Amino acid sequence: MTLMTAQTAAPPLDPWGMLGLPAQIPPATFLTSPNAAHYRLIVRILADQQTHSLTGVSHDDVVRLVREQLRDHDAADLVESMNIDDRLSQLVAWGTCEAWQDKAETEADFLRNRSRYQLTEAGAYLNDVAQRIEAELGLGSTAALMAPGVLADLVEATVDAIQQGDMARANTTYAQVENTLDVMAQTASAWQSKLAAALGGPPDEAKVTRLMETILAYVDAWGSGVDAYSARITAVVPILEALPEQTWRRVALARVGSSAPDHTIDEVTDELSGVSATLRRWFCGVAPQAVRLRRQMRDAIAPVLRSHRTLLAVGGTLSRKADLVRLAHAIEAAPDQDEAWMIWARATSLYAARHLTRQAPEIDSGLRTSMWEAPPVPISARLRAQGHRSLSGRAARMPDLSKARLAARAEAARDRVEQARAEENLVRRSGTSLSAWEPLDATQTELFLDFLSLAREGRDPSGALTGRSTDGRWTIRFTPADPPSTAVIRTPDGRLALTDGVMEIEP
Length: 507
Hints:
Elements lengths: L1 H6 L7 H4 L17 H14 L7 E2 H11 L5 H8 L1 H11 L2 E5 L13 E5 L1 H15 L11 H18 L2 H33 L5 H18 L2 H18 L2 H12 L5 H22 L5 H26 L3 E2 L1 H12 L4 H12 L32 H6 L2 E2 L11 H27 L3 E2 L8 H14 L2 E2 L5 E4 L6 E6 L5 E6 L2 E6 L1 E6 L1
Antiparallel strand pairs: 1-3, 2-3, 4-5, 6-12, 7-8, 8-9, 9-12, 10-11
Helix pairs in contact: 8-9, 8-11, 9-10, 9-12, 9-13, 9-14, 10-14, 11-13, 12-13, 15-16, 18-19
């Protein structure tokens, strides 16, 4: 009894699940999967076949159609790399497709894959949405261009048909009202999305173009239609709201038929009576949805003009010519060359690189040409015209690199101490055979390999390898053992096997 209770116990409650918030949609996973190209190809093929067959697509036909889609490429290799069986199984597991076994009619059918596949409702809808997003269809339907006038005529015709008792004609005209409202809502949603995307962030040519297209599309569709037809629609909405439920029930019977079950008739009745609320929200009152959308379009005109002026005035950039002119005057007014260089360094933060990394050795014989005496550098016309501009924002503040310089100095000091200890350790081992050496640490190993590489640069008459360190402080001499043998030196990264011999390190 205890075991059965444990197995049938309910899963623990998820705090987020108790809130009733929307979570992930498994059928949409094929759009974001790493192999989305494979899945979308199969889904598109299944969607295209729905216009020809309502009973699904067989496994063999899916493979054949995939090969035909990839006929311009190496279809055999691509189809094999897709692993269509696994892709189809995954789509079924996500709920994007459904699969079932076709009946076997011959003995050969028992030996082949008889599965048939068809998109689910969610899979077909998601595929359609993805294709619409990629195609950027804009308005989606030209019906939105005549929406206000069409609605005014249709709602008046609906009221007239109801008053005359012609419920069939009232059902026809009112169905067109519902369809027109759906088109209006979809179009308005697309416009608002385009406005939000175009008004966000810094202006550029693409955003200004999209914003102008959206405003012009609204002007062509509802620019004057809202004011011209809102009064007629507003006058009819109270009449629709005052109709009794029995009247809407008669219209519902004309739509679904008298043989429909009662719950279906009730649902259609609620749907018909609720359309008047949608019309009121769109066209009636002080600030209906249509007027709010027109105000959004009106408010978007000023950003369009500002963006146009910005793009025309500075070519999409913000000028920093004044800052550079002030910097030039400050450098020109400096009392000497050192002070001029410090002004330039403080303004641009172009200090010596050694302040940010390890300390570099001093260069005793470097170039000494003054910046005032150096020959002029050729500057292109484009740099002269646009070099003082930046894409957006103000000039950046000079970064505070004091902590980085302190850290770099501390690291360089530690490296110098470790380098000195490594040199001292290797000098103590000078003149001994490599096979007798004790294990080396990381710094000693790196220095030893450098010395060994330098020793291979030359050879003296006795056959010993000789070389000199890059800083000129050490002379390295390596004499191979006779007879030849192998030495193994232990390092932190493992064992180093090389020819045995005697290494001499002298100043």
